[in-house]
């Protein structure tokens, strides 16, 4: 008598990766449970058993994205030898990551949910908090450069950080709209020069 084969083991990490890509491409609100189960290769009860809920799955997928797909964008701020190199690395790596072949364009932290989400307010609120923390991280790096004498004592770190972060988030939207990496890198160069001009303006 033939024996039945063992059922294929559920690969949770692979399913999470697939769910992340759906959320990244379609946003939290634009993603249905059928989108998720189809991409993940599981049924709805298995999704709930493994991840709890659509909301919990999104947050876990977001954490997976941050850990695996930031491509050194934020670590580059501390690795570069000068603040100007740090800013260039920050913007260049952002442009490269947002246009990388084989993955959805743009940044999931920027594009993962609509700003006025009626389905679950915790999702856009969580993304907003992450973006605010990123802005503070960027400002802290510029503050450090000012304290170390790389930047003038009256340098407006808040304004500079806001300019650079606006550039980065704008690149994410433009990448989603199909703007090519070459164009984003050229714009990044201009933003670096604007930052340098802020630091060197007559006082």
Describe this structure in words.
The chain has 203 residues and is mainly alpha-helical. The chain has 10 helices and no strands. It is elongated. The termini are far apart. The N terminus is likely disordered.
The structure class reads mainly alpha
Query: How many separate helices?
Result: 10
The succession of helices and strands, N to C, reads: HHHHHHHHHH
Query: Could you describe the largest sheet, including whether it forms a barrel?
Result: none
Count of extended strands: 0
Helix content: 55-70%
Sum up the overall morphology in one term.
Answer: elongated
List segments where confidence is low: pLDDT < 50 over at least 5 consecutive residues. Answer: 1-8
Mean pLDDT: 92
Relative strand content: under 5%
Radius of gyration (Å): 20 Å
Span from first to last CA?
A: 90 Å
Summarize the topology:
Blueprint: H1 12-30, H2 33-40, H3 44-51, H4 54-69, H5 76-79, H6 83-98, H7 108-111, H8 122-147, H9 157-176, H10 181-200
List keywords for this structure.
single chain, 203 residues, mainly alpha, 10 helices, 0% strand, disordered N terminus
Task: State the gist of this model.
This protein is mostly helical and 203 residues long. It has helices at 12-30, 33-40, 44-51, 54-69, 76-79, 83-98, 108-111, 122-147, 157-176, 181-200.
